[in-house]
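[Structure tokenization] protein backbone as discrete codes

[Encoding] learned vocabulary of local backbone shapes

[Begin record] amino acids and matching fold tokens:

___
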Amino acid sequence: MDAKARNCLLQHREALEKDIKTSYIMDCMINDGVLTVSEEEKVKNEPTQQQRAALLIKMILKKDNYSYISFYNALIHEGYKDLAGLLHGGIPVISSSNGGKDSVGGITSYVRTVLCEGGVPQRPVVFVTRKKLVNSIQQNLFKLNGEPGWVIIYGMAGCGKSVLAAETVRDHSFLDGCFPGGVHWVSVGKQDKSGLLMKLQNLCARLDQDESFSQRLPLNIEEAKDRLRILMLRKHPRSLLILDDVWDPWVLKAFDNQCQILITTRDKSVTDSVMGPKYVVSVESGLGKEKGLEILSLFVNMKKADLPEQAHSIIKECKGSPLVVSLIGALLRDFPNRWDYYLRQLQNKQFKRIRKSSFYDYEALDEAMSISVEMLREDIKDYYTDLSILQKDVKVPTKVLCILWDMETEEVEDILQEFVNKSLLFCDRNGKSFCYYLHDLQVDFLIEKNRNQLQDLHKKLVTQFQRHHQPHTLSPDQEDCMYWYNFLAYHMASANMHKELCALMFSLDWIKAKTELVGPAHLIHEFVEYRHILDEKVFKAETGEKLLEIKAHEDEVLCCAFSADDRFIATCSVDKKVKIWNSMTGELVYIYDEHSEQVNCCHFTNNSHHLLLATASSDCFLKLWDLTQKECRNTMFGHTNSVNHCRFSPDDKLLASCSADGTLKLWDVKSANERESINVKQFFLNSEEPQEDMEVIVKCCSWSADGARIMVAAKNKIFLFDIHASGLLAEIHTGHHSTIQYCDFSPQNHLAVVALSQCCVELWNMDSCLKVADCRGHLSWVHCVMFSPDGSSFLTSSDDQTIRLWETKKVCENSAIVLKQEIDVVFQENEVMVLAVDNVRHLQLINGKTGQTDYLTEAQVSCCCLSPHLEYIAFGGEDGAIEILELLNNRIFQSRIGHKKTVRHIQFTDDGKTLISSSDDSSIQVWNWQSEEYVFLQAHQETVKDFRLLKNSRLLSWSFDGTVKVWSIITGRIEKDFVCHQDTVLSCDISPDATKFSSTSADKTAKIWSFELLSPLHELRGHKGCVRCSAFSVDSTLLATGDDNGEIRIWNVSNGELLHLCAPISVEEGAATHGGWVTDLCFSPDSKMLVSAGGYLKWWSVDTGESSQTFYTNGTNLKKIHVSPDFKTYVTVDNLGILYILQMLE
């Protein structure tokens, strides 16, 4: 640390120690990378606030200049501006010396790496320095002092703003001192909301390449803004975000997230919409005369003093535009004797302008570009015309132009290099390949010049693509793949190729491939952009012709319904009105205007003999209307919040209603009296949470065909109630990622269809409560779903502006094969081998590194396992049979004496010669399958829950009977019999030192036992739910336990003391803190980390009890987590049958 900074800190030490609170200041310094977590712990351990402050300052005094600056910035950030003012005079000056030993053109390898990773453009081929402007920009960035704020580079088109922004950060000491977190460049341009979302998604993906924050892209601008804020704060602190070519103020709001931002713009007022300090650097309207001459001299390879007289006049006529000077310079390089000719062309102003504006000086650019194009060789002029179809800010791979021109790569690159040499095109090298792009104004120039040819030029490109590619055969490893996925639809629409565009946009192969590569946002944008073309396909096809269109209401229509005889259509709206229409003519029949708030739902009775209409409103009321009367027949009171949905029972005797008050109510239609009220909200409550603090909106309901059951949807759960007994028959949890928008019972069978917010539709068997199929294809929220009267098909409607018709039978048949959750995993050197059973009875052996899958055999498998050396697999069946398969030659060995009931667990001994199995028949079988010897362990009174092998041929088992037993697997005798719990023993774990074991139970307790004593060493109380799992740390000093409320507790094994209660998030809306039960736990080898499975996976710091990371699976209810010995690989299967193999990144 500089002596000046050190003295300043010592001088004001007493005032600082007296006033500062260290906690948040240390957070800032840790984010800056100048303070370690262990140092933070030392400070926290000091008993008083003043002693903590004293130790922190003592640490800073031993550190460098960056620590002083970080401490100063932290004081400002946390509101200690007076104290920061005391230190301001001691702020050290960051050295401007070269921080890297190797450099090219004055740029170190460190700078090249940072700028390359951040997407900063390279220097132009001919480059002149503008040190005064670069220094001004750097000084303004330094004024931000590490605080959030804006520096704006402002000037006219073509004045070199982007080059200046890039040059500002091409400085080692500046980068290292001010922005050690890196630089992130975004080319913004003129955007609509969809385009902006894509820019934000790409930036988030770049900042989170290891996907440690999220595996999916943000779905809207607000989510993207929040994701960006977190990434910049946590993963990239002290970094600079550069936004190039910003046009609109609203765009900046998406980046207004408390970070340091440098922008280039033609309109300095764009920052009026954002908060924080702002510093403007105005770039003069053009280059000065001397700089212009310097550029010309570099192009023609002459000294400035040797330039001819005409050079001064050319600079004058170019009006200072760097782009125009570069274009003329490139021409003069090829034709050094044409100074007079190009000067005359500029003076005569004979070229057509692209656009005339007093704000932008386009005249010189138009003229220079026209000269440049005219001077091209005749045989390549047409190729430059072909570039008129390129979009602004789009870099085109060489391969695309190879397809367009039907040429070899080398031929194409030779032509394009001619354009680059004349500054008519720009080249960007990405690895071994080249990409080419035009300046915005060059695009404008070409479009205007070749406007009458544009349609044919687009058609030429599409036709050439069709000759070389089929859309579904594009592979991500092809150089031009991403270009076609992003712009093929644009070229088809511009070519007026409507038939081809419709075929492409409604191709499931195209939709699937594109969404996997670039996400749904771009696809949705294209559907909206080209809807005037696609509508012809959706609505005017032979089976979907539009029959009637009615301007029904003054505001949004929320629901509509056909009468049972199809004569009438009812509509209801935000305008509080209900209207009845003649379905054949569209004539208005009735208007009902008695609700005082918006009407959310309308539904006719199922019998057409006496039509009634029910309506549900946000005014908390339901109303019944008789179509023969002008006024409401009945008003039904009882709900205390908005009524969202209503449905008549199949016999029309009952009306069901769903409300935001958390209830489902059943009404007698004849009397309009409330018959039953079911509190759905209670199924989401935790015992600790007051009912009034949580909102549960009951979304919708649907009756079974016989009217005996009713299905209700709320949040992410489906409930099935018995109407006669008013009892809950079933509860289905669809997953935590989305909410249920709508549900419908099949009129013919036990199937139900559910619409979800995560763009998916699911089919469920309501008898077995198993999911039958996933129906994917919609690109946004699915809001409504309805079976046909015969149940053979169903309709879905979505925010993606499409309605889809699905065939029920085909959807069920084509549903993907999924895995059951009973898997076994072997970690061997660098391999991960997974043995699993799928839902069509196949045993699968999966290589976790390569994904290669071997389908081994078919069987009614209930459990399976791998031998330690991967030579054999064993599996138990639902019929009690046990078999072993030798992998080398597929020989099968079958146990002669199986179990009487389903086999639940199976495991080889370490030598692979003996197989142990447990069953619902309460027995354990020890089978030496090579010698055909059997030993049976029979003493448990109820089903054996599981077992673990001990040393010296012993085995530990636990059971639903509340006991834990230790057996000799050689003699079959019980060596120890522990009566552990009054209720079921749910899990046991054995300490690594083999002296103790734990037991957990449904009685909400856990116990620690010594193998030598029949009474517990410690009884661990405090859990409020069933304690479902436990795990010892590797050093045998800690025990972790997890319960059904999502709580994890960490205990001291020696004295039974509770060390930490792990509750990762506050309970929101009744959701358990771990997304459900905690089902499995595992410590790291150093006992500092703990991983848990439940509704999702979580990693914890054992020292603090705080969550360090969460991985959300697509489904929920993870049963087990398999962890590699080095704690770096994790394997699990969710309740959707999806296998996850996760690798911890270094």
